[in-house]
Amino acid sequence: MLLWLVALGFFMQTLDATIVNTALPAMARSLGESPLRMQSVVVAYSLTMAMLIPATGWLADRFGTRRVYIGAIVLFVLGSVLCALAPDLNLLVAARVVQGAGGAMLLPVGRLVVLRTIPRERFLQAMSFVAIPGLVGPLLGPTLGGWLVEVASWHWIFLINVPVGVIGVLATLRFMPIPAPVAFKRFDLAGYVLLAFGMVAVSLALDGLSGLGLRQASVLFLMIFGLASLTAYWLHALRRPDPLFSPRLFRGGSLRIGLLGNLFSRLGSSCMPFLIPLLLQVTMGYSPAQAGMMMLPIALASMSMKRVTTPLIVRHGYRRVLVVNTLLVGLAMATFALVWPGQPLALTIAQLALFGAVNSMQFTAMNTLTLKDLEPGTASSGNSLLSMVQMLAMGMGVAAAGAVLAAFTAHYGMDGVQTLQAFRASFACMALITMASAAIFWQLAPEDSRAVPASREQDVPEPG
């Protein structure tokens, strides 16, 4: 029941992350905005999560995983209600920030509970169990979002989180054990401010190229200050005895390369759930419900790959699997640069299924590589760092895709075929970014590439 409970939190988070994408054009019409400039709704959620995740490990140690998990669900539901009530884009983005604050704690704290409760030899099976129910969110999200937009309104894509949240709170009170007291360190507030400001500034600089309408000088200002803040955090962490994320974590090659690979690989591929529904509705004439149904092949192919990924990694090692599969992800993305209105339905489904399959293998391999060598003393910090990088890459990926799409739209124009050309060029650019990240995984040493480290004989985690 504990694993089902953690999976429920994963379900809430993934459902909301995917249900919005299909509804963006309808939301844009309702709010009087352009559908090609709605990425701020996605970026605000992901960026808030990335900004708050560094504090989740300390919060869980300080107040207890059970109490923090309940608070996360309540905050997530409150943000969902505020999203449904938002009358304009600015208030909707603000409500998404509240929702993201709750979502920031759902998956990391739930995964931390499993890390501390399940024996190491059963950890792979436990996390696989958590990941599969959580994948029902992406399976239902786009289809449910498109259907709700057509039969009701986009407001209901947020209101459906309310009953799920109530069930989650009651289940947490019933099934999540009260944790034993854990020694916690003093919170590194100065380091947190530097890290959070750096992430926000860099992400806003990317989003400002299109969605926020910032001028070039403002974008450059944000980017420089953001990079300076991140550099200052690194120097701060080197001299502080108890930083948020100790530089000692990066001594392990698997975690270091896993995190960098996660960041740059997801920077390219995470734009796909944002770009594909827009492409189908804006240029190919799909309705919201039809666009949502077209996302099913991605989710189904993703789920089907879960049982294949682990044997492949055990047989060939992380290095070979990730280098080859990263190139395949990029090629799958590049096929969308060749789409045309009226192309056969079977071909579109094949494109979506191919991307879903290789992208699922990519996420599983990257995540397990990152976490596989963590010891109990570094589990909380390493787990939070991975979640932060994932959410940061997602937000930056959507912001970058929005900026690229805006640039090509300005170049080609916004009428019919011209808009399609802008989408094609955007898919090609984001595919190249993904393929370039294969060079990071190429740096894996043989001892780090093994599925099971020599010093440990149990399975490695598969967060999905």
UniProtKB/TrEMBL annotation:
Question: What Pfam families does the annotation carry?
Answer: MFS_1
Regions that span the bilayer: 41-60, 67-87, 93-114, 126-148, 154-175, 187-206, 218-238, 259-280, 286-305, 317-339, 385-410, 422-442
What are the subcellular locations of this protein? Cell membrane
- Domain Major facilitator superfamily (MFS) profile, chain residue ranges per copy: 2-449
Recorded topology in the membrane = Multi-pass membrane protein
> What CDD domains does the record point to?
MFS_LmrB_MDR_like
Which keywords accompany this UniProt record? Cell membrane, Membrane, Transmembrane, Transmembrane helix, Transport
Q: Is Translocase set as a keyword in this record?
A: no
Major place of residence: membrane
Matches recorded under SUPFAM superfamilies: MFS general substrate transporter
The entry's protein name is EmrB/QacA subfamily drug resistance transporter
Q: Which organism is it from?
A: Pelomonas aquatica
